[in-house]
Design a protein that fits this description.
The chain is mostly helical and 470 residues long. It is built from 20 helices and five strands. Helix 2 crosses helix 18, helix 3 crosses helix 14 and helix 5 runs antiparallel to helix 12. Keywords: Cell membrane, Membrane, Symport, Transmembrane, Transmembrane helix, Transport.
């Protein structure tokens, strides 16, 4: 029975992550890059500075930095550590290049989706900001039905990408390194999650502002130490990654590149899982930010993809491939699991390596659990109303508690599938609103202090759900 379910989900995943999805996602990245005049340059030159600049007089629930770290908390997770290793195992070293390119060009898509999330956001009667692809589709394109689909997929995805895979990763690393039983980990994470998410976005952002910078710096230092140790294999690793991104072949350690399709499929899929550019999740947090105009916050939000994929995922990929090339005894069986490959790489650092990896996975995964709890809430509230939020939180916490005993392979497949299903409505919104995005960018890009005076509509979220209203 389980095998049949696993095979069915795998077949669906193969369809949704076929060439059409890859072309749609990567094509949108390229299109928005050119449509917005390589907005990536502005992201690096201005967005990073804005991300640590407060805008307290602007309307919103949390600071720009709080919204960014909440989004980063959700995106910098096991996808950056285990996910990259899984991409290499399934798609070969060439998948690293496609994962990285998805991040470089995905900055433009992250900018675009965050801009429309802020521009078309609404406010509840109790002052909470609501925004994201569902509101952009409803208010910008009069396509509430498609916004409803996005919200349903997003609500379901939160249990997989945001919760089960993350808790499972924490349980696995604690069991392997400290012998802590999975059920204890599940209960502990469930309690810690409940304490934070019942405080809403302000509580989540407060935790993420402190946790995200620490965990990222800590992990990057570990990667840098390994790269210094593998310094003479960095050049060959880069050459291997670039070569096997396009052609079949073999690399040291028994890794085999399956060619363009395999590298693109797993590289782009894991890139999306890692940075979420095009998926429409991070803009939900961006919509809550205190910002004086949509462009300002869009630039801040797009820095998330820069840090997540252009920096962290690239470093992880180089660490893993250079480690394999340096240690030919690592065979194909050992690297069939991305987590095992990452563990082998960090074991090169005497004594501290396993500790760095363990703390990295725990902090990355826990922060993702918090960020996705917020995303899921906003999606569920959109299609079912605010009255069901308590039920959603209870189910989310319950999933965290039982995740250590769930079959991880099936959860990853379901998460991957839901990611693609979320991305489709969001990419439709971006493409159909591309002229609007370009006009708004032109209006504010050279005067980021200019205030948008358009009033934010106030909605009565106590009325019937969007599902009943369609």
């Amino acid at each position: 029975m389980f095998d049949a379910i696993n095979n069915a989900v795998g077949a669906i995943n193969g369809v949704v992550w076929g060439w059409p999805m890859i072309i749609l996602l990567f094509g949108t990245h390229l299109f928005m890059t050119f449509r917005l005049g390589f907005i990536q340059v502005k992201t690096v030159s201005k967005g990073i500075k804005l991300s640590v600049t407060a805008d307290p007089d602007a309307e919103g629930e949390v600071s720009q930095f709080g919204a960014l770290t909440t989004a980063l908390a959700a995106t910098i997770g096991t996808g950056n550590i285990i996910g990259v290793g899984t991409a290499i195992a399934l798609g070969g070293p060439g998948a690293v290049l496609w994962c990285w390119l998805t991040g470089v060009f995905g900055i433009a898509t992250k900018y675009a989706e965050s801009l429309i999330a802020v521009k078309y956001r609404v406010k509840t009667k109790d002052g909470r900001m609501q925004g994201g692809a569902m509101y952009a589709l409803e208010r910008g394109l009069n396509m509430k039905w498609l916004g409803l689909l996005f919200a349903i997929f997003g609500g379901l995805a939160s249990f997989g990408i945001g919760c089960a895979t993350q808790v499972n990763a924490i349980a696995t690393v604690l069991d392997e390194n400290l012998g802590v039983p999975g059920w204890i980990v599940g209960v502990a994470i469930a309690i810690l999650t409940a304490v934070v998410i019942f405080g809403g976005i302000k509580s989540i952002a407060k935790v993420c502002e402190k946790l995200v910078p620490f965990m990222a710096i800590f992990y990057v230092i570990g990667c840098l130490i390994i790269l210094v140790m593998n310094y003479d294999f960095i050049g060959p690793a880069i050459a291997t990654i670039c070569k096997l991104a396009f052609t079949p072949g073999a690399a040291a350690g028994g890794l085999v590149g399956g060619g363009l399709m395999a590298a693109m499929r797993y590289g782009v899929a894991r890139g999306l899982f890692s940075n979420e550019s095009g998926m429409g999740s991070a803009p939900i947090a961006a919509a809550a930010a205190q910002t004086r105009n949509p462009v300002r916050q869009a630039l801040v939000s797009s820095t998330g993809t820069f840090w997540d994929t252009v920096v962290v995922c690239l470093m992880t990929g180089l660490v893993l491939v250079s480690t394999i090339m340096k240690n030919p005894t690592i065979n194909a069986d050992e690297v069939s699991n991305g987590g095992v490959l990452t563990s082998l790489a960090f074991q090169q650092i005497p004594y501290l390596g396993p500790i760095i990896l363990t703390l990295g996975i725990i902090s990355f995964a826990y922060s993702t659990i918090l960020g996705w709890a917020y995303y899921g809430e906003r999606c569920v509230e959109y299609f079912a109303g605010s009255r069901v939020l308590l039920v959603y939180r209870i189910i989310y916490i319950a999933v965290a508690a039982i995740a250590p005993v769930v079959a991880l392979d099936l959860v990853w497949l379901i998460a991957d599938t839901l990611n693609a299903l979320m991305a489709i409505p969001n990419l439709v919104a971006i493409l159909l609103l591309s002229n609007d995005i370009a006009r708004t960018t032109k209006e504010y890009i050279n005067d980021l202090d200019k205030k948008d005076t358009t009033p934010v509509p106030i909605i009565d979220d106590s009325k019937e759900s969007a599902m009943n209203a369609v």
